[in-house]
Amino acid sequence: MNDDPSRRANEAEPAVVIVDDHAIFRSGVRAELEGRLDVRGEAGSVEEAVRLIAAEHPDVVLLDVHMPGGGGVEVIRRVARENPAQRFLALSVSDAAEDVIAVIRAGARGYVTKTISGPDLAEAVRRVRDGDAVFSPRLAGFVLDAFAGQIPEAEVDPDLDQLTIREREVLRLIARGYLYKEIALELSISPKTVEAHVSAVLRKLQLSNRHELSRWAVERRLLD
Amino acid sequence: MPGPLEGLTLRGGLTRRTIVASAVLAVLVGVMALALILAPFLWRLGRNLAAERAERIRSQERAELAAHLHDSVLQTLTLMQKRAGDEREVAALARRQERELRAWLFDGRRPRDESSLAAAVESAAAAVEDAHGAAIDVVTVGDRRLDDSGAALVAATREALTNAAKFAGGAGTIAVYAEMGPERAQVFVRDRGAGFDPASVPPDRRGLRESIVGRMERNGGRAMIRSAPGTGTEIELTIEMEPA
Lengths: 224, 244
Hints:
The structure holds two protein chains of two kinds.
Chain A: H1 5-9, E1 15-19, H2 23-33, E2 38-43, H3 46-56, E3 60-63, H4 71-82, E4 87-92, H5 97-106, E5 110-113, H6 118-129, E6 134-135, H7 137-146, H8 165-175, H9 180-187, H10 191-207, H11 211-219
Parallel strand pairs in A: 1-2, 1-3, 3-4, 4-5, 5-6
Helix pairs in contact in A: 3-4, 5-10, 7-8, 8-10, 9-10
Chain B: H1 2-82, H2 87-107, H3 117-132, E1 136-142, H4 148-168, E2 174-180, E3 184-191, H5 206-218, E4 221-227, E5 233-240
Parallel strand pairs in B: 1-2
Antiparallel strand pairs in B: 2-3, 3-5, 4-5
Helix pairs in contact in B: 1-2, 3-4, 4-5
């Protein structure tokens, strides 16, 4: 798949598909992204999305969190069966923490809100294509909230259940509206290191069975 | 002839028992038959009542939704068409409507506490958005009770946001980050404007000196201003809580 020459020629311009049940929103995003990214198609339902993604193999799927028939989580689940490497970026107006965390835990590599500007969205897509995680200030806030509080020493898996001081600092700066390069400057580290911290947080978010995270999620009616 | 008599008595006893038994059986069969005959009617009746009730609730909800959309979204859409020429005004209208609708849709389920510091920060940001037409994104982590020092923090936040909206409102979204715990509450207000040299702020800029720095210090907190020409401005407001 990755040897497809037409795709390699487009290395600077990632191929995306837009999945959202609102046609007016899809056309808005498409208009914003035309000329910046290679928009391969749109889908308005879970079924359509699964078919479109299988046909187009886009670098990144722009995925709405809320859709009839299981939403973004269901799209990720079904695509992952055939193609676990497919990359997703959640794009939503939803403010509900439980929905955002659910789509990240299902496998999305980031979350941005629909008010994001065209150039910023194109940049976020590029970042996700390159394997990085994209955290909006809001997502950073949700994660800090979810990982807040102490848990008993005995229950801690230090690799998964806690954020390091550095990771917390990075998340806090994202929540404060800093760009990655500004965070790098502030913490005297390289932008690559900032990205590595964010990816590490994403991994913890997806894999941790942290007691606090589950409790927090239950409180917000994420898990049964 | 004891035989027949006995037999008669026996038969009589049997008969009496049989009569009782068959009477009970008849009643039982009758009840069951009645139940069988009536069951569908009763079932349907119950279901109809439940359906009617659900329908009534649904139509009430629909009426409430329609009323809400009419008072809010439709009015805003009309206003936006009238102001179509003014890009900034249209964006501000859309933003306010979005915030209101979102609050109605999501926060309705979890009503905000009047005494919540996080809620107070959010409504301060909403007020500045409405007054100055700037775009403000608020992220909060944790919460605490809104006490006097918290109120001072909110007032200083509002002043910082007003400054940001006035001097940098055209330069992208203003970011507010509030982190609140038992020991400390902190608010960061960051804009993407032209920035300035904090050392050269003229003494008549009362907003910054009095309403932000002075107010925080009078309430046992502190304010820090990070800015330089060309980098935007970040104001950091902190209050430490005395241990409870």
